[in-house]
Task: inverse folding
């Protein structure tokens, strides 16, 4: 891999934590210390901080535009922030910490490589910490970084840090979290965020920015199971491209090469890849998360919602789907309830909830079996039956083909996000 490729590698991460744990301050610190804000923005924040009588510059104000918009009654799901260092580009999904915005954390985390879970060193592990850790685990976010923040308010005590780390590790041992890292920080003063802190000589790990720049994300995608959900049929209908018929979409798994034999779902017909086109021109191969247009040797009927796979490696095709669901709506999930389903590029599917198997207790991870009510922010295991078969993989194998959302057709509201088991 050459230096140019390393520079352009993109890492997506999400922040999660309870209210006032310092998420906005941490993002402000990352933006400021990585020189990702303009001088006039910094001056404006400085002026506002002075006007409010605050000591120093309140970097959390860099993301406060979002809060003022919400106070005006404008609904914003997730605020995205962009910055880069010589090694990587970053997209931060800044999600609100309040319990009523758990759905926003799911939205921001669904495409993340890394989740930063903030814990206030004075409060330790709280219910919202556990909820976010469970969601990060359910969403199979490959890497978790637990930032134990506000260490300056507990005199950078190693004892406090070790106690929180031990408590979180004990809880996380019940989850499917593969890679967990702990960093003691002060987002307000910048300790261990970009520069190492002189107050934590007992901490020998990396700073947060060093971790984000160097964590290995190359194997976060599934490069084995070839999956290409068709999003759009490309027919230019011009004299120059009179017979052109391509299938546009995003590679959801595996590697597609020119000349490969492929199978089309649901028809089961086979063909070969004649060409692969991208915005930058023809390619010899395509892999996740590239957006490309595939050309096939045979003229076959294929449309939005269909899928191109390998003949020997197909997803499960079924109408009966087992899910872990995170419920977003104030209206409880109804057994025998009917909802619209969006899965991959399929958007004309409906379902009925066959049964609710259990609700998960956020604090103990115990399964509550006796037909519990599934309310807002609850996590439960359910089974649905769809009006037509879905081409699905288990979520643990493929986050793109293993996820779906449920929509209330009366209100058009997204009511639940599901991970296929």
Result:
């Amino acid at each position: 891999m050459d230096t140019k490729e390393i520079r352009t590698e993109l890492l997506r991460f999400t922040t999660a934590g309870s209210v006032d744990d310092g998420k906005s301050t941490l993002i402000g610190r990352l933006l400021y210390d990585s020189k990702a804000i303009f001088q006039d923005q910094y001056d404006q924040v400085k002026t506002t901080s002075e006007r409010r009588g605050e000591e120093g510059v309140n970097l959390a104000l860099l993301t406060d535009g979002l809060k003022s918009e919400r106070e005006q009654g404008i609904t914003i799901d997730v605020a995205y922030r962009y910055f880069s260092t010589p090694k990587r580009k970053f997209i931060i999904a800044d999600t609100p910490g309040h319990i009523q915005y758990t759905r926003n954390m799911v939205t921001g985390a669904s495409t993340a490589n890394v989740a930063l879970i903030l814990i206030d060193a004075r409060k330790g592990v709280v219910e919202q910490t556990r909820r976010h850790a469970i969601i990060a685990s359910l969403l199979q976010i490959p890497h978790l970084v637990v930032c134990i923040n506000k260490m300056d308010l507990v005199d950078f005590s190693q004892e406090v840090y070790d106690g929180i780390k031990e408590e979180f590790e004990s809880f996380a041992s019940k989850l499917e979290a593969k890679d967990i890292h702990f960093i003691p920080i002060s987002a307000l003063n910048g300790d261990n965020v970009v520069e190492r802190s002189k107050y934590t000589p007992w901490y020998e790990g990396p700073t947060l920015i060093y971790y984000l720049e160097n964590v290995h994300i190359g194997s976060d995608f599934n490069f084995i199971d070839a999956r290409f959900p068709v999003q759009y049929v490309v027919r230019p209908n011009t004299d120059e491209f009179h017979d052109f018929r391509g299938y546009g979409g995003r590679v959801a798994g595996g590697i597609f090469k020119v000349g490969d034999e492929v199978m089309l779902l649901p028809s089961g017909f086979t063909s070969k890849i004649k060409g692969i086109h991208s915005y930058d021109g023809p390619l010899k191969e395509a892999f996740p998360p590239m957006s490309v247009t595939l050309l096939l040797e045979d003229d076959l009927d294929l449309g939005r919602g269909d899928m191109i796979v390998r003949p020997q490696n197909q997803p499960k095709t079924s109408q009966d789907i087992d899910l872990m669901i995170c419920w977003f709506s104030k209206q409880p999930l109804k057994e025998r309830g009917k909802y619209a389903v969006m899965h991959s590029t399929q958007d004309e599917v409906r379902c009925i909830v066959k049964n609710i198997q259990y609700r998960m207790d956020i604090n103990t991870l115990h399964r509550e079996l006796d037909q519990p009510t599934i309310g807002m922010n609850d996590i439960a295991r359910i089974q649905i039956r769809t009006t037509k078969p879905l081409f699905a993989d288990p979520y643990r194998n493929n986050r793109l083909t293993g996820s779906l959302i449920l929509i209330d057709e009366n209100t058009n509201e997204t009511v639940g996000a599901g991970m296929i088991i």
User: Anything to note?
Assistant: The chain is about 20% helix and 35% strand. Helices lie at 3-8, 23-33, 39-51, 64-71, 102-109, 127-138, 158-172, 208-214. Residues 3-214 form a domain with the Rossmann fold fold (CATH 3.40.50.300). The chain has three domains: 3-214, 227-309, 316-420.
